[in-house]
């Protein structure tokens, strides 16, 4: 069974399938717009406030992709399928793609590209402040996601930088919790998933055996 799963995961089509799956929320979102432009079919799904619909849809998918990306390492260890790592970069980049769309719906139809107004809003409303921070933290991660950047920064520095995704996830969950006025069930569910992932990471890094100092270094420490 495991060999079969491994074969599927390392096949060259698996990345295409995962890519299409990650793109499907975007297609679902864009399809009514295409139908409207091509055949003047009214986009009924968007309801009375299409901007709000798109904002919520893209916000939800950003948070989901952040959590899916963070689940890759625990899943590959718990299920013993190391090949899952092949998809982590793509999943992270999709989180960034959806947050860019989310931010675009904010600065364009919401703020009308009024940068001054946007800054005032970011400073005034705490839920926008943390959302903005979560977005900004993902920018260096998206830029340095390539193999070239791993080489340039070195494995350890790259890994430390990419731990920012946990802070971004925290900002995303807090942002969602603060903006919801009643029924905090869903933000709390996302917060619980993030807490489990964080605790797992903390646990594995605490339990990881530390490299033993060489006898010479140990003598110097004494
Ligand atoms: C990591 C970054 C972010 C995540 C994970 C995130 C996630 C979310 C989620 C889950 C929602 C609610 C969706 C729903 O109710 O179904 C939302 C709404 C919203 N987000 Fe974000 N967001 C992020 C960044 C941002 C940024 C950078 C801005 C703008 C500067 C922003 C502005 C908004 C606004 C205005 C709403 C709608 C609020 C309302 O309807 O009252 N978000 N976001």
Summarize this entry quickly.
This protein is mostly helical. It has helices spanning 2-10, 12-39, 50-78, 88-110, 115-124, 126-143, 147-153, 155-162, 164-179, 185-207, 215-221. The protein has one domain.
Task: Explain this structure.
Helix 2 packs parallel to helix 4, helix 3 (50-78) runs antiparallel to helix 4 (88-110) and helix 3 (50-78) packs parallel to helix 10. The mean pLDDT is 91. The chain contains eleven helices and no strands. The chain is globular. It is mainly α and 222 residues long. It has one domain (49-221). The chain has helices spanning 2-10, 12-39, 50-78, 88-110, 115-124, 126-143, 147-153, 155-162, 164-179, 185-207, 215-221. The site of protoporphyrin IX containing FE has 23 residues, from helix 3, helix 4, helix 6 and helix 9.
């Amino acid at each position: 069974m495991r060999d079969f799963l491994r074969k599927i995961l390392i096949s060259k089509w698996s990345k295409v399938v995962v890519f299409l799956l990650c793109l499907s929320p975007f297609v679902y979102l864009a399809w009514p717009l295409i139908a409207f432009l091509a055949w003047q079919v009214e986009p009924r799904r968007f309801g009375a406030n299409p901007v709000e619909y798109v904002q919520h849809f893209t916000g939800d998918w950003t948070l989901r992709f952040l959590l899916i990306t963070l689940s890759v390492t625990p899943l590959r260890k718990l299920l013993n399928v190391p090949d899952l790592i092949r998809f982590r970069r793509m999943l992270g980049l999709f989180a960034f793609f959806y947050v860019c769309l989310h931010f675009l719906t904010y600065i364009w139809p919401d703020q009308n590209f009024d940068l001054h107004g946007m800054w005032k809003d970011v400073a005034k409303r705490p839920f926008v402040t943390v959302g903005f921070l979560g977005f900004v933290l993902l920018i260096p991660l998206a830029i340095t996601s390539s193999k070239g950047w791993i080489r340039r920064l070195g494995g350890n520095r790259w890994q430390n930088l990419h731990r920012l995704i946990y802070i971004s996830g925290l900002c995303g969950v807090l942002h969602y919790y603060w903006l919801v006025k009643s029924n905090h069930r869903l933000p709390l569910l996302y917060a619980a998933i993030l807490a489990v992932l964080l605790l797992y990471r903390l646990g594995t890094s605490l339990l990881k055996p530390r490299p033993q100092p060489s006898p010479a270094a140990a003598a110097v420490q004494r």
